[in-house]
Amino acid sequence: MGKFRDSVDVRALRFAIGFPLLLAVGFVVCALLVRPELPEPLAVRWTDSGAADFAPFAAVTGAGASLIIVVGWAVLFQAVPLSRPAMMRRIMMGAGLSMSLFITTVLAAVLVGQLGLADARESHVDASVLALGSGAAVGLGVVMGFVFKADERWSVDDDVAVRQALERERDPELARDTVSLWVHARSSIFVMLGIATVLPAALLTIAVPWLAALLVAVALVAAAFLFARIRVDRSGLRVFAAGIIRVMDVPAAAIDAATPKDVRAADYGGWGYRIHGNTTALLVSSGPAVVIDRADGRRLAVSGGTAVSADNLSQTLSRVADRARHGGGPPAP
């Protein structure tokens, strides 16, 4: 029980459980108060020619109250776990309030549109109640999103942040030895890729839909692999194709030299991840890159973004490699 309480916002949990329940009870009570003025059965669906489907009063009120509770719980409970970002919890709290109030508004508009009628076939959904209630639901949801204070708790992420801060305090040079960089192809490459795949897919949609979907999927995968995330720290170099697939992991001690160069992708086998002879490359475009010589004789090449970022990346790699060769001590002058 203690672990559960530590993982949820208790105040948000109480509200998430209680608000839809109270709203549903309020709807049922109000429906019972106007019951003598409502026809039996009630209209529940309308077409251009009038009411089309009908249901008993008890079924309408029971199903309506259940819908308020189920939808309210489904959305509001998303704001309860403390592991989720505070902004997401605020959005879900506001959305849950709006959804619950909107469903209640629709049900109220259905009942008000049938007040005083002997036959539900002459009824309609009251537009005034629907418009006013919907506006209030949206407005109150926005207000709730702003005023809801996410309950901040100490988490594993906070432990990591404190540990990193202490490491930076003990070693001011640590920040200089850490680089995180995203690189991607030029925008013209993505335009060409779209022209080569998406436009033919649009033409094939009518004739062969599955082939059109396959072309779009291929285009998305190809575009993803024209992005790369590069991470350098004192442990070495890690390169992630599409930002998530690790394709290079080089320990700092295994790096012999890192040199910024202006390269042509064709010289390394083309764009993307390539193994060309004793060279492994991940180039998203021709241009600034870092060429890395390993101690075992192999060579790596990774795109460096701009000339400035490539130069910074090579200097950091040289620094961490030199530190690793000296057993973790300061780099050689």
From TrEMBL:
Domain of life of the source: Bacteria
UniProt keyword annotation of Membrane present: yes
Transmembrane segments: 12-34, 54-79, 91-115, 127-148, 183-204, 210-228
Coiled coil spans: none
Swiss-Prot/TrEMBL keywords: Membrane, Transmembrane, Transmembrane helix
Record's keyword annotation contains Metal-binding: no
Protein name: DUF1648 domain-containing protein
Lineage of producing organism: Bacteria, Bacillati, Actinomycetota, Actinomycetes, Micrococcales
